[in-house]
Amino acid sequence: MKKQKSSRGQTLLEILLAFGVSILVLSAIIVVVNASLSNAQYTKNQSLANSYAAEAMSVVKQIRDSNWSNFISYVTGTTYCLDQNKATLRESDPPPLVCGQNVEIFSREVRFEHASDSCLADPACMGPSCLKGSKVAVKVLWSDSKCPSGNIFCHQEELITCLSNIYQKQSP
């Protein structure tokens, strides 16, 4: 009879152990699924940010192509904002010279560096007479739950290119 009581206690212990293992396995599955969803969202945002940066670069090229004087009037080192569905740049709001969320959850900004040494028309050319283009950097920034507190936009995609009017058809 003592054996029967012992086996009932052992069965209860086995049930509790199986229940504990089941909870651990279920918790691990939930953690993995949550991490996968978070990574998928990050990848989606990264892809969108890259698209928004390419779109902004296209707008900057249109500004260059339509009016070179207007293009070079953008001040070197100043941050400009390109809001959603806009074809014009606006100066960022001071301080801290950021554009805020101007394209859904993203912040899109453009910076110019005219007569940039990194944008020589002829890389072999040396000296002040060398023709230099304008370096244009488009940054798209965003935030998510992985960002530390106090860091508004901890993720970014950046496109940098050199633009000039060397091959641009001059109007009569």
* Beta-strand percentage range: 15-25%
Please give the alpha-carbon distance between the first and last residues.
111 Å
Choose one word for the global shape. Answer: elongated
- As an assembly, this protein is single chain
Helix/strand structural class: alpha+beta
Give helix and strand order, one letter per element, not per position. HHEEEEE
SSE arrangement:
Elements: H1 2-66, H2 68-72, E1 79-81, E2 90-91, E3 107-113, E4 134-142, E5 155-163
Antiparallel strand pairs: 1-2, 1-3, 3-4, 4-5
Describe what you observe in this structure:
41% of the residues lie in helices and 17% in strands. 18% of the residues are buried. Strand 1 and strand 2 (90-91) form a beta hairpin. The chain has a five-stranded antiparallel sheet, covered by helices on one side. The chain has 172 residues and is α+β, with helices and mostly antiparallel strands. The mean pLDDT is 85. It has helices at residues 2-66, 68-72, and strands spanning 79-81, 90-91, 107-113, 134-142, 155-163. It contains two helices and five strands, in the order H-H-E-E-E-E-E. The chain has one domain (2-163).
